Amino acid sequence: MCLLVSRKQRQKRPPACSERGGRCPRSQCVGKQILHGSAAFDEAELDTARYPGELLPDWYDDWVHLEREQLRELRLHALETLGDRLMSYGRYGEAVEAALPVLRLEPLHDSAHRLLIRIHLAEGNNAEALRQYNGYRRRLLETLRLEPSHQMDELVRDVTVAEV
To answer: Could you tell me the residue ranges of all domains in the chain?
Structure first.
């Protein structure tokens, strides 16, 4: 029995992959393939990684919480890796599409914000990169009273110097 349930169709079983005799949820395999660099950029595969569904919604047992957290972390890392790979191929729009779900799940996820800024910079959108940086900086200060990381500041340093 499959444990992943789609948000749209809670009754339907998502497709399973061939790993572990078909018992591995498709979104988990796609996430692992992306992290290890073996996933192709098939649109159906990308959609599976972006919108995998929720693990046993409405269940609150401790073991379910741990499994749900593991899948969430795998999804975050896989989407960031996917965004980075897409950016390296010059597929900037799709790279942004891969990074944004990470920020919906974790609005203060530093590495996802850095990825978005790098995508904007690679595309030559310096103003958009600065807008992303300033929005993140403001949210971080308001929420946690923290400044952005040194890595984040270094990323936009050349842009801010050029803008002045």
So the answer is: 1-94, 107-164
Is the separation of the CB atoms in 37 and 77 below 8 Å? Answer: no
3-class secondary-structure state, position 4: strand
Ramachandran bin of 16, using left for φ above 0, alpha for ψ from -120 to 50, beta for the remaining angles: beta
- Per DSSP, the three-state class of 25 is strand
* pLDDT, tens digit, 9 for 90 and up, residues 41-58: 555 455 555 555 666 677
Q: Band of the pLDDT at 162, cuts 50, 70, 90?
A: low
3-state secondary structure at position 5: strand
Report residue 64: phi and psi, to 5°.
-70, -40
pLDDT in tens, 146-157: 999 999 999 999
SS3 16: strand
5 - beta bridge partners? 54
- Res 6: pLDDT: 43
4 forms bridges with which residues in the sheet?
Answer: 55
Please tell me the distance from the alpha carbon of residue 47 to that of residue 118, in angstroms, as a whole number.
Answer: 23
